[in-house]
Amino acid sequence: MEENREGHGLAGGKILSIWTILFVALILLPSMFRVSLGISHFYVKIVIKILQWATLQIEEGVKKQKALALENLISTGIIQREETSMEEEIAGQCQGRLNLADVMYFSKKGCEAVAEDEVTRRFSSEELVSWNLLSRTNANLHHVSWQLTVVWVIGILIRYCLLMPFRVCLAVFSILLLVSATTVVGQFPNGRVKCWLSNQVQMICATLGVRCLSGLVHFHNRENRPQEGGICVANHTSPLDVLILASDGCYSLVGQAHGGLLGLIQKSCMQTTQHVLFERSEMKDRHLVRKKIREHIADKAKLPILIFPEGTCINNTSVMMFKKGSFEVGGTIHPVAIKYDPRFGDAFWNSTKYSMMTYIFNVMTSWAIVCNVWYLPPMVKEEEEDAVHFANRVKAVIAAQGGMSVLPWDGGLKRKKVKESFKEEQQKKYCQIVIENGSVGNGNVC
């Protein structure tokens, strides 16, 4: 009996040693030197082949007409809107007269908004043209054929029984490494050594965090990476945006102070790097926010500051209104476009529907997180250009590079109603159209 126990103990020790060696050789060391061994590329290629095969199975099992109807519904939505402005639709209808038919224009826009408004759907997960074999996006398509059912079940076992435990262990290790390493580095006196160690720790932990999600990130135009004393501006889809960007460079963050797991990570990073964090009550004080940002970028030795001007997570299909505060402080703006591939997993965090832990669980049980990051050329505010127009210009560049649509709406509509000022703006626009048509004072009505 004792010999058997000793044998089992030796076998267990050998297995643990092998796993430790593999972990250090395949994950830890490549993360430290930020090199890729091609494992993620190979894994993603296999998943793509499986998804392509699944799509063919679905097309064979579902009638072609239904598949086409589903594809058209996903790509165009319920409502097919005309891409024309109020001025184009109303101004030419009845020159020189007040046209009562204008009421139909506003009625049509109201009905379109009730059936499917273009804002609310940006706060839900992006629709997929083909099924990605995940249960959360399943429309009973796994019953199309027995072969597809078998692959779907095998996929569940792989994601939940193999990938998720490994990812959780690696995530816990990354967080513990971040907390312990920043605590040690935080004891160093301020200087170049502390700054260098802090940057290395954060980039290594961020790289480990990306790899614990089987992440594959393609960085483009690295020569345009944000420089010290600048402002990095990016579209916002999830907390993973910070993790992905931090794996390729170091930033000072501007954002709301959180509690729980995010709060622990924020406090750890604050020990070695200067970030601009606010309580929710302070975030409403725009003057205080601008003052702290201006003070930060005034020191050209400090890290570039990372800001998400949308102020909330959008589902990566569009870029919504950029808050003008980030563009009023001056300095150089470094735009960054982040576009996720939804086939492998949904990176969007719908904070009104899912808690942080639920979101992490969904991400951990996805196939992978695959995305493209484009560093765009730096931009500065032109003469006589106000902050709003500058923000819109930067937003348009980011949306064009990422293949996303541009929306003028405030992302804050996720949690609050439309401002009265926006309603008044539409009313003033219509009044201006009527005045320019010469209908006021003429008594003309049609």
Polypeptide structure, described:
- The structure is a single chain.
- The protein has 446 residues and is of the alpha/beta class.
- Helices cover 50% and strands 9% of the residues.
- It contains 14 helices and 9 strands.
- The protein has helices spanning 2-33, 39-61, 64-76, 86-90, 102-116, 146-185, 192-211, 240-246, 260-270, 280-283, 286-298, 356-364, 387-402, 420-436; strands spanning 216-220, 231-234, 252-256, 276-278, 305-307, 318-319, 333-340, 370-375, 405-406.
- The chain has a 7-stranded mixed beta sheet, sandwiched between helices.
- α6 (146-185) packs parallel to α9 (260-270).
Strand content: 5-15%
Percent range of helical residues: 40-55%
Give the rounded overall mean pLDDT: 79
How many angstroms does the end-to-end distance come to? 102 Å
Q: Biggest sheet, strands in spatial order?
A: 1-8-7-2-5-3-4
Net shape: flat
The radius of gyration over CA amounts to 26 Å
Helix-strand string: HHHHHHHEEHEHEHHEEEHEHEH
Uncertain segments of ≥5 residues (pLDDT<50)?
none
Tally of strands: 9
Structural class: alpha/beta
Number of helices: 14
| Main beta sheet | 7 strands, mixed
In short:
The protein is an alpha/beta fold. The chain is 50% helix and 9% strand. The strands form 2 sheets. Strands 1-8-7-2-5-3-4 form a 7-stranded mixed sheet, sandwiched between helices. A two-stranded parallel ribbon has the order 6-9.
Topology:
Blueprint (H helix, E strand, L loop, with lengths): L1 H32 L5 H23 L2 H13 L9 H5 L11 H15 L29 H40 L6 H20 L4 E5 L10 E4 L5 H7 L5 E5 L3 H11 L5 E3 L1 H4 L2 H13 L6 E3 L10 E2 L13 E8 L15 H9 L5 E6 L11 H16 L2 E2 L13 H17 L10
Parallel strand pairs: 1-8, 2-5, 2-7, 3-4, 3-5, 6-9
Antiparallel strand pairs: 7-8
Helix pairs in contact: 1-7, 6-7, 6-9, 7-8
